[in-house]
Amino acid sequence: MKKLCMILPLALLLCFMVGCQDKEAMAELEEFKAQAEVEEQNKALVLRVYEELDKKNFEILDELAAPDIRLIGIGTFESKTIAEAKPILSMWYGAFPDYTSTIEEVIAKGDKVAVKMTFSGTHEGEFFGVPASGNTMKYGGIHMWEVKDGKLTGWWVQEDLLWLMQQLGMELKPKEGEK
Under a CB-based contact definition with an 8 Å cutoff, are residues 65 and 82 in contact? Predict the structure, then answer.
């Protein structure tokens, strides 16, 4: 009987400890599920941007982006606002009327969404001073987005613009007089 009196409290203590661990594990699992859901929503938001841009609907950025979004495009523009970026997008899609973004991979982690993509189109209008060539082009890029509270707050652009320009007939050569 004495052994039973000693074992019973130990068994109850063990059950209590296991029950608490299950509650902690369940809370952690719920938190993980909530984060995964937010990441999926962020990915869907970013993918919507590309769908709309390919339709030349640049106004979508006004709807989906925070007013103070940071836009950073290496080589084409630095820290532009949406209002400053729209003419660049318009020029880009005007030079390549059939310009399309093909999404190859999308990865979301926390408030960041990374997109690996390929761009293609036909050069039918002036592009950064390069007259229309009629050449088709295809080049790659990676964009990184930041999403907070369902709004786009950052857009970093890294694209292979050298390869793009070479496809348009431009050549890379040293400056005159330098070796």
Answer: yes
CATH topology of domain 2-167: Nuclear Transport Factor 2; Chain: A, (3.10.450)
Domain ranges of the chain: 2-167
Question: Is the pLDDT confidence value at 146 over 90?
Answer: yes
Closest Cα partner for 150 from 71, 69, 89? 69
Residues 105, 114: Cα–Cα separation, whole Å: 8
Look up the pTM and report it.
0.78
Amino acid identity for residue 66 in this structure? A
Judge contact between 159 and 118, C-beta under 8 A.
no
On whether the CB atoms of residues 131 and 163 are closer than 8 A, the answer is: no
**Residue 10: count of CB within 10 angstroms of its CB:** 9
